[in-house]
Amino acid sequence: MPFARHPLRALAVSAGLATGLTLAVAPSAHADSTFTVPAGATSVTVNGEGSGHGHGLSQYGANAAAKRGLSTDQILRHYYPGTANGTAGGQVRVLLSSRPTLVVGTRKGLVASVVGGRRFRLTHVSSSAARKAKRWMIAPVSATRTRLAYRKGGHWKTFRVVTGELQFSAGGAPITLYAGADRGTFRGTLRSARPSATSADRDIVNVLPLEAYVKGVVPNEMPALWAPAAVRAQAIAARTYAVHERVTVHRGYFDVYDTTQSQVYRGAGSEQAASSRAVDATRSRILTYAGRPAYTQFTSSNGGYMLANAAAPYLVSGRDVYDPVRTWSKAISVSALKGRFLPNYPLGSITVTTYPNAGGWVHEVVVSSSDGVHANTIPAETFRTWAGLKSGSFRIAG
Question: What angle do CA 135, 138, 144 make, to 5 degrees?
């Protein structure tokens, strides 16, 4: 269940979400394809392939490759050529929510502790009412003071007010986190963290071992029962992606988001036996380039062509013979298109420029007036987002 910057809500596991932030895509010479908009046309059709950003591993492609007999290493070499094997461990700090209060259910071994300081064994406290409490809460009092409270008779009773940040743990066992009527289960520590040293706000951050984190990612990014070699490749890519963010993106009090801003993480409650086996089978393995964790972007389906990313020489353009090309179409209103990109002139044509050796992956869209004098050049990602397209591999048709 994703928590990043929003209240907890339940979502169904979705196969192959396109994840990873797209950095600068390698621009180069590209081909043009121009569609002349007929006079009186009310819509144009966009035909495309794939789903996602096209960089790195195609999840559908990895599954198809595994079914054809490729090993995990062969799949990874196909999608991340030039990378080497490495290892990583430690912990990951995951931003779950910007909710100011952190509420958990009581369980055996539940402990509240000041970060770097005093611990309170909440199932062994002297107060009978607190010891029998079903829920505990951490809430900010000020930038430096934090309240620890328990639920009794429909009301919250203060147990302690302490200096510093507070967190809950249970010796590594899962803890149930509540947000209104919703809930999720998470391993490790649930911390009520200050976004900055002077802030009176709090965010919920899950601090847990890297391997436990990956187990809460993989089944939310790829169906756990897909071909084992593909799921193992996904585990290595997800682990590497998290380590890359941890060491290269300095966010202060957390390392990764729990959404597609990083990769989808839903905690212990989303773990699947088959995907956890894939994580265990690849324990600590990551991909490296020049001795550093690789930027292992992955996508649902690349539409038959991989797309390079200038930020990483191992994210290359080229034909992907394994990806089962999935096509799609979408109609776009001419009036909406004109109103957004060429409001003051009659619409005449739409030109699409594509990247070399990358199939239909689009670099720019140029919307021109009928007299050919006026034009608006739109980055592909801007056009794709506005039009709600599944991917940036597309062309304009009648």
Answer: 165
